[in-house]
């Protein structure tokens, strides 16, 4: 028996990285998966986002667990695309029990060097995109009258300031405000809302950020995550998926409005 048997999880940014780990981990535990991703590049960040073949790989890894997988190409910044994605998910599976807001971007620049376009795209993807998923999924969860789980990936950057990441931090702190307010609003329906706060995670985002900043991956990691107390600089996507799985499982049924750090102790300093 899986921990999520009979559940449907709607995951944004699921083509690769942490989103793929969430999809495969939840499928392993019995959930059917709606995997949403943009599958194309944006003018910002200054590195490549996912491709359609990345998304297809996630779908095939989910199906290897004998779960159903629906891939949807959508931009989380677009109200019409997110509304359509949720409609497609309901058409296919009839319900959504778990929402994972994960699609995100990162890039480094000093606050006064961030252009207006960079600021807007950062905030649109990393904050508005989370809200839009909520906007269309929550009414469905309420209508189902079966509770629900909402998990939003923030970051250690959503709990502290980080040089070169002012726009990213602003968005990731914003996610905490969104999650805490939403937790108050949906508790009456048995829906929990929690945020995850990873330290550096070994994904294409880190490689992309380093390349865009013109430094090596090792230099970037040293710059941002030297305060990890445990002897590790980057954690693996699977470790974040393990935390999300717990939050989505019955074991965490009365846990809401929390900020769960998966940070190797970084925030203790
Ligand atoms: N990697 C890290 O060190 C780290 C640390 C803390 C938090 N995070 C957060 O974790 C989340 C996942 O990042 P990751 O590390 O897996 O990076 P990643 O780049 O591997 O994955 C992000 C995915 O989001 C998708 N995406 C980006 N913009 C989108 C949009 N507008 N619409 C739909 N999909 C879009 C990308 O195509 C990509 O597949 C992000 O929110 C990120 O900010 C990452």
3D structure, described in words:
The structure is a single chain. This protein has 269 residues and is α/β, with parallel strands linked by helices. It has a single domain (8-268), classed as NAD(P)-binding Rossmann-like Domain (Rossmann fold), CATH 3.40.50.720. It has 8 helices and 7 strands, in the order βαβαβαβαβαβαααβ. It has helices spanning 17-28, 52-63, 79-93, 116-144, 166-186, 204-213, 217-225, 237-248, and strands at 8-12, 32-37, 69-73, 98-101, 148-153, 191-198, 259-262. Strands 3-2-1-4-5-6-7 form a 7-stranded parallel beta sheet, sandwiched between helices. Strand 4, helix 4 and strand 5 (148-153) form a beta-alpha-beta unit. Helix 1 crosses helix 8 (237-248), helix 3 runs parallel beside helix 4 (116-144) and helix 6 (204-213) packs across helix 7. The longest helix is centred in the middle third of the chain and has 29 residues, at 116-144. It is globular and about 45 Å long. The termini are far apart.
Per-chain topology:
Blueprint: E1 8-12, H1 17-28, E2 32-37, H2 52-63, E3 69-73, H3 79-93, E4 98-101, H4 116-144, E5 148-153, H5 166-186, E6 191-198, H6 204-213, H7 217-225, H8 237-248, E7 259-262
Parallel strand pairs: 1-2, 1-4, 2-3, 4-5, 5-6, 6-7
Bound molecules: nicotinamide-adenine-dinucleotide (NAD).
Q: Summed up, what is this model?
A:
The protein is α/β, with parallel strands linked by helices and 269 residues long. The chain has helices at residues 17-28, 52-63, 79-93, 116-144, 166-186, 204-213, 217-225, 237-248; strands at residues 8-12, 32-37, 69-73, 98-101, 148-153, 191-198, 259-262. Strands 3-2-1-4-5-6-7 form a seven-stranded parallel sheet, with helices on both faces.
């Amino acid at each position: 028996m899986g921990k999520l048997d009979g559940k449907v999880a709607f995951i944004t940014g699921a083509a690769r990285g942490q989103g793929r780990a969430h999809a495969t981990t939840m499928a392993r535990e019995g959930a059917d998966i709606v995997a949403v991703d943009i599958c194309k590049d944006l003018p910002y960040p200054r590195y490549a986002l996912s491709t359609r073949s990345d998304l297809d790989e996630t779908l095939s890894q989910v199906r290897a667990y004998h779960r159903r997988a629906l891939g949807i190409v959508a931009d989380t910044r677009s109200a019409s695309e997110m509304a359509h994605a949720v409609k497609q998910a309901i058409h296919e599976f009839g319900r959504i029990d778990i929402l994972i807001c994960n699609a995100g971007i990162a890039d480094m620049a000093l606050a006064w060097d961030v252009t207006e376009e960079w600021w807007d795209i950062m905030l649109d993807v990393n904050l508005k995109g989370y809200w839009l998923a909520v906007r269309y999924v929550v009414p469905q969860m309420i209508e189902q009258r079966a509770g629900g789980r909402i998990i939003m990936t923030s970051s250690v950057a959503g709990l502290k300031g980080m040089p070169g990441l002012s726009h990213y931090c602003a968005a990731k702190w914003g996610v905490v405000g969104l999650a805490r307010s939403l937790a108050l609003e949906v508790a009456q329906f048995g829906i929990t809302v929690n945020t995850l706060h990873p330290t550096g995670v070994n994904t294409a985002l880190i490689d992309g950020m380093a390349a865009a900043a013109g430094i090596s991956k090792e230099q970037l990691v040293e710059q941002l995550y030297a305060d990890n107390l445990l002897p590790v600089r980057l954690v693996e996507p699977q470790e974040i998926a393990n935390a999300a799985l717990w939050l989505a499982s019955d074991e965490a049924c009365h846990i809401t409005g929390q900020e769960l750090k998966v940070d190797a102790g970084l925030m203790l300093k």
